[in-house]
Amino acid sequence: MILDNLKKIEDQVSSSCVKSGRNRSEIKLIAVSKTQPVDIIQEALKAGLKDLGENKAQELRDKAELVKGDFYWHFIGHLQANKVKYIINTAEYIHAVDSIKLAEEINLKAEKINKKQNVLLEIKTSDEPAKFGFELEIDIFNAADFCKKSSNLILVGLMTMAPYSDDEKLIRNCFARLRQIKDNLNRNGLDLNELSMGMTNDFQFAIEEGATMIRIGTALFGNR
Ligand SMILES: *Cc1c(COP(=O)(O)O)cnc(C)c1O
Question: I need a surface site. Which of 20, 75, 178, 185 has the fewest CB within 10 A?
Fold first, then answer.
C-alpha cells in the first residue's frame, strides 16, 4: 500500500515541479510516521523513504531505539524545552523552534553532546488562533539572530503550517509569505535554504511556492 501511495505522491510532486520549473532533487519528502507502528515504518523504509517525521518527543525517542538504518529523523512537532533531551541524540532536524527559550535549550543540550543541531524557526503565517510560531518581523529577526550566535545551532530554514482549508489562495499566501520572510532574512545576512511547508492536503501548492521539505503522513500511510 505504501508503495502505491508513494508512486501517486511522486506523480503529484513531479507535476508540481514541472508546473513551477523546479527540480525534484530540491525537495525532501518527509514521511510523517507519527502514530505508525514499527512494522509500517520498516515498510516505508523498504519503499525507499529516507526521511521520517515525528511530532512527539517520547515517541521519537522510543522509535529511534527500535528502528535503525540509512535514514534521518525529523522532529516536526511543538517541542517543550524540558523534552529536548529525548530527541537531541537522534533528530537530524528540529523543524518547529517557536521560542528563544527553546532555541537556548536545544543549543545547551547539543553543546553537551558536541553536536551541531539543524533547526528551523516555526513561523505563524495565518491568523488562526491556536497555532504556534513567531509572527512579528522583529521577533523573527531576533530569533534568527539568536540562532546564528549560538555555537551549536545551525539555522537552516523556516517552517509553517497553512490552515486546513479549501481556499487555495489563502493557503498559497501562507507559503508565499514564508518564502518572502526567508528572502528578507537572507538579505540581512542569514543563509537559509530550507522551507518546510506542505502536508497531505496542500503539498502541491507548497512545492509551487518553493517548499524544499514537504511533510506527508496521511497520503502515504492512510488515515491515522
Ligand atoms: C501530522 C503532521 C503532518 C502530516 O500531516 P498529514 O496531513 O497527515 O500529511 C505534517 N506536519 C506536521 C507538523 C504534523 O504534525
Answer: 20
